[in-house]
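Annex B. Sample input.
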Amino acid sequence: MRQLLQNAFGKLTRLKPLDSFSLAAAKATHLPLDIPIEEERKQDYDSRHYYPVRLGEILHDKYQVVVKVGFGAGSTVWLARNLQRFNFKERYAILKVSTSHADCAPEEAHQELRLSRQIASAKPAHPGLEYIRLVQGSFTISGPARPHLCLVYVPMREPLWLLQRRTTDGRYSFGLLAYTTKFLLTGLSYLHNECSIIHTGGSFTNVLVGLEKTLSLDDIVADEINSPSPRKMLPDRTIYLSRNDFGHPKSTPGRPKITDFDTAVQMTGSQKTFSHPIQPNCYRAPEVILGAPWSYPVDIWNLGAMLWDLLEGKALFDGSDSNRNGEYSSHAHLAQVIDLLGPPPKELLARGAKAGLHFNSGGEFMARCNVRPRKLVDTVSTIGGAEKEDFLRFASRMLEWLPERRATALELLDDPWMRSLPG
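Annex B, continued. Sample output.
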């Protein structure tokens, strides 16, 4: 049996842990203890809820933590060496170590794991699965107070916003935009049609691009050992600055993948809509702002609004409210949508529990912000001619007031602009 397994999967290898981290720590810059950094700057931060990960530590008797690559309100994220693997397995993994807070973070991590398993098994041959980042495994570690769920992922390069920042003018080329859009729509079509899942939170931060073939994670680890990340040394933990900038790609990065399903929802049984608040501010669909029932079309609006960030380097709707010192407000957001699309249909207002906050009984906008009519054509300056016509026709199908009038992901993939792409 052992020989059969070895023939099928290759040899199980046990790597020796790196022992350079204690020496590297002596060279690291120690940061002031009174200035919050990284996860400490998150609202409602409580150190008791975070597992005190240490560089060089071995988790689950398998993963040696080598670089901190990120953090959030509900987790810290680390690059780790896979010390126990078959030959065909990745040498490195990304570990998302969840907080142990009794409220939402562990629940969100368990949801991510549950949905990832369902996505992986729904229809494995579907081309959209290639554009979804799945959880590869999970384990639990004991923390000072409670257990912590750890999710394992394949390493990725960086989020879309960082790749975009590396371009000459902070904008995507039209060709790169077209392929990125096609890949993301292929992923969304799989989520919507095969998995009954609505992502609800698309943004620059949760679409990741893959590693290029020329990028060596060994070099990233060597950089950490030779030039250790600055850190704050506390009595019960060390907080490291994240090392998540892998430099300018030396070759073409891998394809994008949709990530972070901790706030995603899944249609079950007779439930066809939801009504709770979702989505990043500037990508929020009108029905969500108005408190109306929402479904799959929120993801289409979300992606449609994101296209302007990629192409123009700025948000189509930022919701900046001059009456609130430029801070976001849903009222200003609605005003900007009205600027471009005209007033919303009364049938949409009739569905919205919050419509009365913004519109009178006659359906007229109670403008507390300046409404300055604009044309969608005037919002695009980086392309012209047939390219501009193709893009605006395509994007207009995504940015409709009424959710039921928006094109689906499958319909958009059949758009002439998408069908014109080679491959």
